[in-house]
Specification:
The protein has 421 residues and is an alpha/beta fold. It is 34% helix and 23% strand. It is built from 13 helices and 23 strands. Strands 3-2-1-7-19 form a five-stranded parallel beta sheet, with helices on one face. A five-stranded parallel beta sheet has the order 9-16-10-11-12. Strands 4-5-6 form a three-stranded antiparallel beta sheet, with no helix packed on it. Helix 1 crosses helix 11 and helix 6 packs antiparallel against helix 7.
């Protein structure tokens, strides 16, 4: 194998993979760079709520890789990776293509986890991609349309009840967005928005238990003060999800209870990506208790140092990190720095990614920004900080400028039909 021409292959075009590729290209990395992803578009997951609400557009939240990589030395390959041979250093695709690599970067992310809950995968709506967002919007609009026409009060109540399972950051942002958004949609059909119920449910007995007390209080207050107040159903373990109800059991009771709803949105839990599960050459002792591969502080696999892995498809030894965009963003840059160091026969260095604040969307034009656990900014100002922070992370200067200018123009001239809070 001629290392001078063998490429660095990056599998997964999420935050870790894309930013590794872009950073390498912008810093004149000497080896060829191949980025492989199964889809044609990057998914800016923190802004999917704005895509659902119409506050941002698909070109801002779901830009094409060919646009993001234009003018770089990164070769993009759209295809599904079916096998990785860590011993032979080879990546195989479903199309029959295969690539040998000098270095490999794994940034494939995770899959939606359902904890084995009966019917959840078949009947609940995940919210992780552009396709998920489009499917959910279509379903919700159909429910609202049917509710506006049905004569049955029981059926209307079922159609207008929306359950969000999982009261972490994603569940909170989903519930808060729907609580402000759906009244607009339903009112346009002549419906009474007061008939809508948004229920946020979780097995935990308090939300954001690991966060600052002031942040907890801010979020709880905001959920109560949406256009439709969000109902919290905590201490409720979901037992089953059907097409027209959710079964759950309260932690302090034995009997199973039922919430009638046509819409259960699942934001609880993650599972290992199947590709990561297939890496049988990684020893069991080099995985965490969930089966994720362990990486060193330099984000290299313990037994295969030519392989880097980060984001929520790997676990840093002795250092737990949340699976959020700002961490993956920093890790991508760190991996690129280490690859550049290796190409110059220099030593790799530890990558100290850290949380720089918590940003939570709390409805239309509303958010809370908890900056370095010192400054809490809420409301429209918090929303401006949250959106501008994420827009500044958008890949490539040109895309960042276009997305920022379009969004700021909409903010300044209030072009969107949603009223300010």
């Amino acid at each position: 194998m001629n290392n001078s021409t063998t490429p660095t292959v990056i599998v997964g075009g999420g935050f870790v993979g894309l930013f590794t590729a872009l950073y390498l290209s912008h810093h004149n990395y000497s080896d060829p760079i191949i980025l492989i992803d199964s889809t044609e578009r990057f998914v800016f997951k923190p802004l999917l709520y704005e895509y659902l609400s119409g506050e941002m557009y698909d070109k801002q939240v779901l830009p094409q890789y060919k646009e993001l990589l234009k003018g770089t030395k990164v070769a993009f390959v759209q295809g599904k990776v079916t096998d990785i041979d860590l011993e032979q250093r080879q990546v195989e695709l479903a199309s029959g293509l295969h690539y040998n690599y000098r270095y490999l970067v794994l940034g494939v992310g995770s899959s939606q986890g359902y904890f084995g809950t009966k019917g959840a995968e078949e009947n609940a709506f995940p919210f992780r991609s552009g396709a998920d967002t489009v499917k959910l919007e279509r379903h919700i609009r159909q429910c609202l349309q049917q509710a506006s026409q049905t004569e049955s009060q029981a059926e209307r109540r079922k159609l207008l009840t929306f359950a969000v399972v999982g009261a972490g950051h994603s569940g909170i942002e989903t519930a808060a967005t729907l609580a402000d958004l759906l009244p607009h949609w339903y009112a346009s059909l002549g419906g009474n928005s007061e008939d809508i119920r948004i229920v946020l449910m979780d097995f935990v007995t308090e939300i954001l238990a690991k966060d600052d007390v002031h942040l907890q209080e801010t979020v709880q207050s905001a959920l109560k003060n949406r256009t439709i107040p969000v109902e919290l159903l905590l201490g409720a373990k979901v037992a089953a999800v059907d097409s027209d109800h959710v079964q759950y059991q309260l932690v302090d009771r034995d009997e199973t209870e039922t919430l009638s709803t046509k819409t259960a949105i699942w934001t609880a839990g993650i599972a290992n990506n199947p590709l990561i599960e297939s890496l049988t050459q990684i020893k069991d002792e080099s995985k965490d208790e969930h089966g994720s591969p362990l990486v060193t502080s330099t984000l290299q696999l313990v037994d295969f140092p030519e392989v880097f892995a980060a984001g929520d498809c790997a676990t840093v030894k002795d250092h737990s990190l949340p699976p959020v965009a700002q961490i993956a963003y920093q890790q991508g840059k760190g991996i690129a720095d280490n690859l550049i160091a290796l190409s110059k026969n220099k030593e790799t260095h530890s990558i100290d990614a850290n949380m720089r604040g918590t940003l939570i969307k709390l409805g239309l034009n509303d958010a809370v920004a908890n900056l370095f656990d010192k400054i809490l900014v809420q409301g429209r100002s918090g929303n401006l900080i949250r959106n501008q922070t994420y827009l500044n992370m958008l890949p490539t200067p040109m895309h960042n400028f276009k997305a920022s200018s379009e969004w700021l123009t909409d903010e300044i001239f209030n072009r969107h039909h949603h009223s300010s809070k």
